[in-house]
Amino acid sequence: MRLLTLLACLIVATIMAAANDDSDISMVMFTKFKKRYRKTYSKGTQCSYFRRWKNRKRMVNRHNQATALGQTSFRLVDNQFADESDDEWKSKLLGLAIPGEFNAKKLGIKELTSIDPEKDVGDRQILSSTITIPSSLDLRRHPCMPPIKSQSSCGACWAFIATTPVEFQSCLRNGNRTVILSEQQLIDCSGLYGNYGCRGGFYTLAWDYLFDIGGQTTNSTYPYRAAAGSCQFKPDVTRVSGRVSRYFYLDSNERTILSALLQRGPIAVSIVANSKFILYSSGIFDDETCKEGTVNHGLVLVGYGTANGTSFWIARNSWGPRWGQNGYILMKRNVNMCRLADYAFLALP
């Protein structure tokens, strides 16, 4: 039976190669792809996965040819997601859900651009307007930046995006001692705030929950399971290691986003993640097709810079260290690439 399945896939591969002149994309290459990412398929599904991988591999090759000719600024790769369907991408990789008709003022969210930067908010100054802006910033190797994580097969990017800024700020307040917090707590326990576990959510709703409940415990106390379950957090018993006292909407302004990142640390953002984003490998991501549509994924901005005259953001993803540039992506700056400036937030302890 296995031989018949392989033979059927080879026939499909031959027909597709003849129709698309892709004789260089073979079942042998697909076998290497499966081995590289330890792929196994249930009975009768391998041909479907092969067809999807082959189509994506074709797209990758054509895009990278354009990059070699200087027509694009980034490269793609047939990574571990290249054989998966759009529905699989949606359920496993994405999971961002904007809460209703988003309006910062109606929701009572403070807009940082409406705050006088020279006055204290509470007991702390939020931003200074007199600092010198350096040409670049890279927090990837900062002692308070936690290791890249993977949301695995759970569509809860929102929980990871909510957690990274809290981890970073908690570390700063504790003498640069790294703290790894629990995304699972947010997945299991913030449902009453409008989140849906592995079926979607939004990072500000997670911060609302943390503010009310008193804080976030560590991953070692409440480990990640990549699945939603009943809440195990006990407010009067479970020790918390990260807190959120306030957060601010950055008003779709990339200058304000840069200033907040420089002075305060990582910024949570939302984007439109398309197929090229998912298959990103290296370079500065600049794709006009992702500037429209509904945001469906979250990232954390951790730096910025300029290369060959092109300004970029450094963004942290939650798909593990094998994706992109060791879990990070460079995205073109000052053009609201993939709508990343539309829902940018700064969280403070």
Provide structural commentary.
It contains nine helices and twelve strands. A hairpin with a 2-residue loop joins β3 (120-121) and β4. Helix content is 31%, strand content 15%. With 349 residues, the protein is α+β, with helices and mostly antiparallel strands. Residues 10-21 and 113-124 have low confidence and may be disordered. The strands form three sheets. Strands 1, 5, 7, 8, 9, 10 and 11 form a seven-stranded mixed sheet that branches. The chain has two domains: 2-72; 92-348, Alpha-Beta Complex (Cathepsin B, Chain A), CATH 3.90.70.
CA gyration radius, whole angstroms: 22 Å
Strand content: 15-25%
Count, helices? 9
Helical content (DSSP H or I, runs of 4+): 25-40%
Mean pLDDT: 89
| H-E order | HHHEHEEEEHHHEHEHEEEEE
Q: Helices and strands: which structural class? A: alpha+beta
What CATH first level of the largest domain would be assigned? Alpha Beta
Number of strands: 12
Overall domain count:
2
Largest sheet: 7 strands, mixed
CATH topology name of the largest domain, in short, is Cathepsin B, Chain A
Q: What low-confidence regions span 5 or more consecutive residues with pLDDT below 50?
A: 10-21, 113-124
Please, what is the CATH homologous superfamily of the largest domain? Cysteine proteinases
- What is the second-level CATH architecture of the largest domain? Alpha-Beta Complex
Keywords: Disulfide bond
Family: Belongs to the peptidase C1 family.
GO molecular function, one term: cysteine-type peptidase activity
InterPro entries: Papain-like_cys_pep_sf, Pept_asp_AS, Pept_his_AS, Peptidase_C1A, Peptidase_C1A_C, Peptidase_C1A_papain-like, Prot_inhib_I29
